[in-house]
TrEMBL record:
The species this protein was found in: Prevotella lacticifex
UniProt protein name: Glycosyl hydrolase family 13 catalytic domain-containing protein
Ranges for domain Glycosyl hydrolase family 13 catalytic: 33-356
Lineage: Bacteria, Pseudomonadati, Bacteroidota, Bacteroidia, Bacteroidales
InterPro entries: GH, GH13_cat_dom, Ig-like_fold
Signal peptide bounds: 1-21
Length: 602
């Protein structure tokens, strides 16, 4: 027995020494900051460096860190998000020039905002072929060169070798990434190049910290190696896994030199915010932020550029996105708010952030277990801040709120903070006017017609054609050959965006012999299928944008004001659905409002 106890003791000491082997911490304790993810897939306009720079004052009022997409040049300045990285020292991209990026970062820094670089070092793309990584020099600091020995020998499951490239690096120390070359992190040359790159991002570009992409692709000890060398103020890894213990193990094996995105928390929220609030009681075992031993290293989020729910997904969580954001903004960990949610629920999120900061909730705050749970129905969360407590009532919770004042509320949630805290700043926040999209008058629907309209985003630039792909669970309504049917150009909006229309020609392809009704889902795409819109739920007459429905031509649901009436009950004039007033009955074909009714003139 003595030998066994001695062995156990020695193992514990060894584990402790590994955990404490690094004096560098990749995420500070007692940190009260909130992160902002400034992009979604194809967010080329919203995420232009100049556009983000212009928002610095507003962002700095609520956020402390801004995560931006991979900023190195990928041999294209359009339709390239940066995750097939080629150049590391050349920082022009689809989001702007290197100078514009530097200006944004320095402007943010002057406002107290740190910029988080998206670091893609699991894999790399060739310049003109699969494996020809370019030689690059950072003047006065060093040159990076590459060879086939820097690529994993089993890259792409052996496809790279089969294609004629004799890659001779060691076997991959993590998951393979299909499509780019997996770097061999055991290579001294790879390590040297990555270290140089990270110093470049911090010292030359002015970044504050790193978001490491696809860290499952290489052993966590290399993240430790790179962080201990570069010493970023913040480091967070994309360890995409729903198991809290696995994410915590990755953090541990980086020597705690990095935080991790709390994917387990994301999946917990997804399962609970459809209305089964009781599942949130598993927060301690089913999330990193809910475990007091690891909350310091948890970056919580609802969705990101990869996980954002498509409109075709009928998951009830979609109706509780604001409540889900309120939840992570009350929990320990460091919350990361996604730009798409920020744009849609800006007022609510602003208030929740201010409430969190007012109470002094940090990434290591304590959850009051005695007041947290489902005793009062729904779910109640109470967290102890440095200045007071926050209490979040979700669903139908009727928990007592004596000693608290209401700071913010929305569908299925109420966010309270302790009495005595000054919430005047929260109450002063007013709703911002919603972004409107007028449906042009040339968009019409004939009797019996099944159709949809698409406004081409300005970020897509000049496109040769627009396609439609529509389907249901049994078959396809657009030929069943991607990218589907070519749409008809109708005209341009007052903002200059082109509008296209797809009309169902009654064709239907189904392997099961099913009978067609109307599509369930729809996607519009450009050129030969790229870029493409998010998956959308189909409704006849819908007028679609990139990721949302702007209105419906048949129902006139685009926010046009009600037509005023004269005392005798007749309307004063004819109106187009875009709101244009006509003194007399229009002579052009189209959909109009007259006498309080929608009228089609053919």
């Amino acid at each position: 027995m003595k030998k066994i106890l001695t062995l156990i003791a020695s193992v514990c000491i060894a584990i402790s020494s590994v955990a404490q082997s690094s004096s560098f911490s990749g995420w500070p304790a007692n940190y009260g900051g909130v992160m902002f993810q400034s992009f979604y897939w194809d967010s080329y306009q919203d995420t232009q460096w100049t556009n983000l720079t212009s928002q610095a004052d507003t962002l700095a009022k609520y956020f402390d860190l801004v995560w931006v997409p991979q900023s190195g040049y990928c041999n294209s300045l359009t339709n390239q998000m940066g995750y097939a990285d080629i150049w590391w020292f050349d920082q022009k991209s689809a989001f702007g020039t290197a100078d514009q990026l530097k200006t944004m970062i320095s402007t943010f820094k002057s406002k107290g905002l740190g910029t988080i670089a998206d670091v893609v070092i699991n894999h790399k793309n060739g310049n003109t072929n699969w494996c020809d990584f370019p030689t690059e020099t950072w003047p006065g600091h060093g040159t990076m060169t590459w060879s086939l020995a820097d690529i994993c020998s089993n890259d792409d499951g052996g496809k790279t070798k089969a294609a004629g490239y004799n890659v001779t690096g060691a076997a991959d120390t993590g998951d393979d990434f299909d499509g780019c070359r997996d770097l061999d992190h055991t290579s001294a040359n790879v390590q040297k190049n990555i270290k140089l790159y990270l110093h470049f991002l911090l010292e030359e570009m002015g970044y504050t910290g790193f978001r490491y992409d696809m860290v499952k692709g290489y052993a966590p000890k290399y993240t430790k190696l790179y962080n201990e060398d570069a010493q970023p103020a913040f480091s967070v890894g994309e360890y995409w896994d729903g198991s809290a213990s696995k994410v915590e193990s990755w953090i541990y094996n980086t020597g705690k030199t990095s935080a991790a995105f709390d994917f387990p928390m994301k999946y917990l929220i997804k399962s609970a915010f459809g209305g089964d609030w009781s599942k949130l009681s598993n927060y301690a075992s089913s999330s990193v932020a809910g475990n007091s031993s690891w909350a310091q290293y948890a970056v919580t989020f609802i969705d990101n550029h990869d996980t954002g729910e498509p409109a075709s997904n009928a998951d009830p969580q979609r109706a509780n996105v604001a409540a889900a954001n309120a939840f992570i903004l009350a929990m320990p960990g460091t919350p990361c708010v996604w730009i798409s949610h920020w744009k849609k629920y800006k007022t609510i999120i602003k208030k929740c952030i201010l409430a969190r900061k007012l109470a002094g909730v940090t990434n290591t705050s304590e959850i009051d277990a005695s007041e947290t749970g489902t005793t009062y129905g729904g779910f109640t969360l109470t967290v102890k801040g440095k200045n007071g407590n926050v209490k979040l009532l979700l669903g139908g919770s009727t928990a007592p709120t004596t000693g608290y004042q209401l700071a913010c509320e929305g569908d299925n949630f109420k966010y309270y903070v302790s009495d005595g805290l000054d919430i005047s700043g929260i109450n002063s926040i007013t709703d911002e006017p919603a972004e409107t999209h007028e449906i042009p008058s040339f968009c019409t629907v004939a009797d019996g017609e099944v159709c949809a309209f698409f406004e081409v985003p300005s970020t897509w630039g000049n496109v040769s054609k627009i396609n439609c792909w529509a389907w249901d669970s049994k078959g396809n309504y657009t030929g069943n050959k991607w990218p589907g049917k070519t749409c008809t150009y109708l005209g341009t909006t007052t903002k200059g965006n082109k509008v296209y229309k797809w009309t169902w020609d009654r064709s239907y392809v189904s392997a099961s012999g099913a009978t067609a009704s109307v599509p369930t889902y729809i996607i519009f795409s450009a050129n030969s299928g790229s870029p493409q819109q998010d998956d959308m739920t189909f409704k006849n007459g819908n007028y679609y944008g990139l990721s949302e429905v702007y209105g419906n031509v048949i129902e006139n649901t685009n926010g046009i004001s009600t037509v005023t009436r004269t005392p005798d009950g007749t309307s004063e004039a004819w109106y187009s659905i875009s709101g244009t007033r006509f003194s007399n009955k229009p002579t052009q074909k189209g959909l109009y409002i007259h006498n309080g009714k929608k009228i089609v003139i053919r």
